[in-house]
Amino acid sequence: MTRPYIGFGAFISPLHPPGEDPSLLMWRDMELVEWLDQLGLDEAWVGEHHTGGWGTIGSPEVFLAAAAERTKHIRLGTGVTSLPYHHPYMVASRIVQLDHMTRGRVILGVGAGSSPGDAHMLGIAPGEQRRMNGEALEAVLELLEGRGPVNRKTDWFVLQDAHLQHRPYRREGIEVAISSATSPLSMQLAGRHGLSTLSFASPRPGGSPPDLRRQWEYAEEAAAASGRSVSRENWRLVVNVYVAESRKQALEDLRVGSAAWMRGYFGDIVGFPVDSLGVEPGREIEFLVESGAAIVGSPDEVSEGIERLYESSGGFGKLLVTGADWASRENTKRSFELLARFVAPRFNGSLRSLDSSRDWVMSRRGEFVPQALNAVKRAFSDSGVDVPQLTVPERPEPA
């Protein structure tokens, strides 16, 4: 079977259970990004959180600027910058500076903001966030595209003859991706402006899997209505993925961390009634796998899960592995190593030429082996030495 082409990266929110030194948490997140770069993964995304104790990075731009100095190839995305929390001019100005500092490796991921605590501290009513997100996005795009002085006035920001001193590092500009969960609004915004998209494909505990095919249709419909286009190659799906030597080992590696995430984060912090799901304590990871919230197992099992996700979604360009401290630091790094070594090559095309060369040699071994034997015999003969009996045992036919 011909597998689809998919790129791979990580969506490092990050979410860490409380109790660990915050400075060391940031160091550990930075170490992980460096590891992903060494493994050759395509992207690393870091988010913005200000409350709740689990999300420990308040400025993804500052973190990614430091990560850029420690990495060589990996693209770095804000996952995401919450537009209602910032004046759009400052968002555009900061990301262009970061674009230059990374030599064009940055991606601007944007969203409306998901933490009620963050919005509350800034005096933003939850019902206004999506409107503000759309208004800010339009302003940011105008500034990044350099259409001329930008003049906009809303009830929360003003732009007067606004323009950026620097253009993006690359002629094609900065890639902008908008995040989407379940509602159609973000995908419609992506289609309206012809942007990349970033969808959360893992359902929340107890929730039904998102209708990814319909999500993509929202983007296509809005793009057609606006005379724009969107590409599945620029559609990223964020998924909980973990690779181990076996399904049994994977489940054991994730047992404690997934329970803490499900009950501590979604239960205690978000306020989701986890106990109402009837999940037996200690078997949270089995529940998450069975509900489609996680793809875990051996490289073969994870590859099969990714293929199913590709089929159910209708196709996407990149898979971003969620970082949520489900496993220990060492096992998390090991999982990404197995992903890079044995899963990603099945989808990113790096094995195709090797497989083709192997098949070509195997198909002509009946010709190549006798030629090699004859060459050895001639070497003996030319040396004046008796030629030994060289034969190749017949290969038994497969049963």
Automatic annotation (TrEMBL):
Segments forming domain Luciferase-like: 30-314
Signal peptide: none
Pfam family, one: Bac_luciferase
Keyword Chaperone: no
Name the UniProt record assigns to this protein: LLM class flavin-dependent oxidoreductase
InterPro entries registered for this protein in UniProt: Bact_Lucif_Oxidored, Luciferase-like_dom, Luciferase-like_sf
Source organism, top-level taxon: Bacteria
EC number(s) per entry: 1.-.-.-
GO molecular function ontology, one term from the record: oxidoreductase activity
Keywords attached to this entry: Flavoprotein, Monooxygenase, Oxidoreductase
Lineage of source species: Bacteria, Bacillati, Actinomycetota, Actinomycetes, Kitasatosporales
Family named by the database record: Belongs to the bacterial luciferase oxidoreductase family.
